[in-house]
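Format notes (please read before filing issues)

Several people have asked whether sequences and structure tokens are stored in separate files. They are not. Every record keeps both together, in the order shown below: the sequence lines, then the token lines. Line labels are part of the format and must not be stripped during preprocessing.
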Amino acid sequence: MNNPASQNWKQQQRARLRELRQQIPVEQRLLWNDAITAALTQKFPVLENQKIGFYWPFQGEYDPIPAMTFLRTCGATLALPEVIDKGEPLRFIEWWPGVSMKKDRYGILLPDNTQEIAVDSMIIPLLGFDEQGYRLGYGSGYFDRTLAAMNPRPMTIGVAFEIQRLPTIYPQQHDIPMDYIVTEQSVLRRIDSGLEPLKAIGSAPGNNVG
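Then the structure lines:
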């Protein structure tokens, strides 16, 4: 059962973190974006051969487009999420540079009528995250519903800035933690006891998920 107190707290944190993220100075944001892009493209070589679900940046989120463009040149197949209906899982449709785009119901761009892709990995934006690897999103539950419906479940990499880190998000039963979290300062792997810095990745980071 959801705790009304924690739900109220989450609403307050969402508003605070959204405002905090949008106040990041432009030059600082560019530096942080570059650092996260470098981590995604250098620390996860397995992504180069996968079908990856990304997202289109919105309201000050980390901008993954440079990482998307790079990974596609390496052989990855890329897709963006499409909202089908409230209460339904997302579906991922193929994206490539220059593809025709349209706006969804939230005003976010997505490919216009491309094919659906079954993704191996997902790069997921975090409004906030905690020391156990749980994600604070916008409250719609789309990503949690999508992950719960996928079998096998894809490798999940959450991306955020360090200022979005929280001690806990008071996770509920339906919340699904990330396998990895990447910020401008660190690459973190989730293990049973929480998050730890990723020391060695090899060629298949998905195999190292705790």
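For reference, the curators noted about this record: Helices lie at 4-22, 26-43, 65-73, 142-149. The mean pLDDT is 90.
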